[in-house]
């Protein structure tokens, strides 16, 4: 391939590239992270222009960055978070560890209702300040794309407040944010005895109003015995479909209601949690192309024992993403690397599957499969330079951060030159 380089192009040279491109095979015909050596990664503006053998690329007057045999991977994608909320629930966690039941805590105003109350009582400025700290931790570990949900406001004004904070974070940070409407997260206290009326409010007012204001990209729901029924979920999805809005679902976390099949029926982006997913549901999502999002942080924090059906998901070829599920009640972990480790240790994923789960399949779960999650020509130039030699090192040894450069849309947004990186 011959290309004409411009002076403004940037060549990243002398790196090991874990492209995550499934079309790139090793000598045994396996993808193995889509590894390439002795290849240059060429960036033009915000995109990857090409990946070519080093000896075929004339540098001309381009800027050449010597990666000194370090590893370059796609930027990490955290495809399921509840990052914007008020307060925290550390005291509740302590109570649970001291033997107090969740039912008792909830009866005293704890649980999700305490987060709803704190979020409603927090100003947008306070929510943004608290969320920025969480986001900083994720970006420092290599996250370049993230999803953020509403769902702690549970009325029009406070759901809008949450989503406007998400928008503000997107405008002020070098990160791409995919906002999701999760008004059907829980029944708010004022609708405790009439959840159908709350779904009326979501479908008739909250969803169309905030969609018109372009505050979100997709609609989510907690379809569960302690959340919303299949019928209520179907009404929400039907409303979204009329407006041509993609859907996804928190489903099969605590029981099997058939929520995954319903998400598949509406060609949903993802089914998330899915510890209790059965083969019928897996067949459905395999046909619809829906991504299974695994959330080992919540599994760990809640000390669950029912693992997602990994073997069946593999058997049916269902793409598996993984995510932090960052939230105050069940997964307060602002480290996607930790979650990758958990996915391997707790759920039995291979390290390569974990990497696929935070790159190509996480991108697919956010409707960005054609632009994010790979090092490939035409893709957004979001990538990380790590001071390691193999992808497994990133999730194997935790406690220190090997990130050297974080590149977002072609621009270096974080650098650590302590090791003489030029």
UniProtKB/TrEMBL annotation:
Chain sites annotated for binding N-formimidoyl-L-glutamate: 152, 327, 329
Co-factor: note: Binds 1 zinc or iron ion per subunit.
Main location: cytoplasm
Single GO molecular function: iron ion binding
UniProt-annotated binding residues for Fe(3+): 80, 82, 250, 325
Swiss-Prot/TrEMBL keywords: Cytoplasm, Histidine metabolism, Hydrolase, Iron, Metal-binding, Zinc
Cofactors: Zn(2+); Fe(3+)
Recorded metabolic or biological pathway in which this protein acts: Amino-acid degradation; L-histidine degradation into L-glutamate; N-formimidoyl-L-glutamate from L-histidine: step 3/3
Subcellular location: Cytoplasm
HAMAP family: HutI
Protein name: Imidazolonepropionase
Native source species: Xenorhabdus thuongxuanensis
Organism ancestry: Bacteria, Pseudomonadati, Pseudomonadota, Gammaproteobacteria, Enterobacterales
């Amino acid at each position: 391939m011959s290309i004409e380089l411009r002076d403004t192009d940037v060549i990243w040279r002398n790196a090991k590239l874990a492209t995550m491109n499934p079309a790139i095979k090793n000598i045994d015909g396996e993808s193995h992270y889509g590894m390439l050596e002795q290849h240059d990664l060429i960036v033009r503006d915000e995109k990857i222009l090409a990946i070519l053998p080093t000896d075929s690329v004339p540098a001309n007057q381009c800027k050449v960055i010597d990666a000194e045999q370090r590893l370059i991977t796609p930027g990490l994608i955290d495809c399921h978070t509840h990052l914007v909320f008020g307060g925290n629930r550390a005291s509740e966690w302590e109570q649970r560890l001291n033997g107090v039941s969740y039912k008792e805590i909830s009866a005293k105003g704890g649980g999700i209702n305490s987060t709803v109350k704190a979020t409603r009582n927090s100003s947008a400025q306070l929510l943004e300040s608290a969320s920025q700290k969480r986001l900083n931790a994720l970006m420092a570990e290599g996250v370049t794309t993230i999803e953020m949900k509403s769902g702690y406001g549970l009325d029009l004004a406070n759901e809008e407040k949450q989503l406007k904070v998400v928008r503000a974070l997107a405008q002020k940070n070098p990160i791409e944010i995919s906002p999701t409407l999760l008004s059907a997260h829980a029944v708010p206290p004022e609708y405790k005895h009439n959840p159908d009326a709350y779904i009326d409010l979501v479908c008739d007012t909250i969803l169309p109003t905030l969609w018109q204001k372009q505050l979100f990209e997709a609609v989510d729901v907690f379809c569960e015995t302690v959340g919303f029924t299949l019928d209520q979920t179907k009404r929400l999805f039907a409303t979204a479909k009329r407006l041509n809005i993609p859907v996804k679902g928190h489903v099969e976390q605590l029981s099997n209601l058939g929520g995954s099949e319903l998400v598949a029926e509406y060609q949903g982006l993802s089914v998330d949690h899915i510890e209790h997913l059965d083969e019928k549901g897996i067949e459905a999502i395999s046909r619809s192309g829906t991504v299974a999002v695994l959330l080992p942080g919540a599994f760990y924090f809640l000390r669950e024992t029912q693992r997602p059906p990994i073997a069946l998901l593999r058997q049916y070829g269902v793409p598996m993403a993984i995510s932090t599920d960052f939230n105050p009640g069940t997964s307060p972990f602002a480290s996607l690397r930790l979650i990758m480790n958990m996915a391997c240790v707790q759920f039995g994923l291979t390290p390569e599957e974990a990497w696929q789960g935070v790159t190509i399949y996480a991108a697919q779960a956010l409707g960005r499969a054609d632009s994010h999650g790979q090092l490939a020509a035409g893709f957004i130039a979001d990538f990380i330079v790590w001071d390691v030699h193999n992808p497994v090192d990133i999730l194997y040894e935790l406690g220190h951060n090997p990130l050297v450069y974080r590149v977002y849309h072609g621009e270096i947004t974080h650098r650590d030159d302590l090791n003489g990186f030029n």
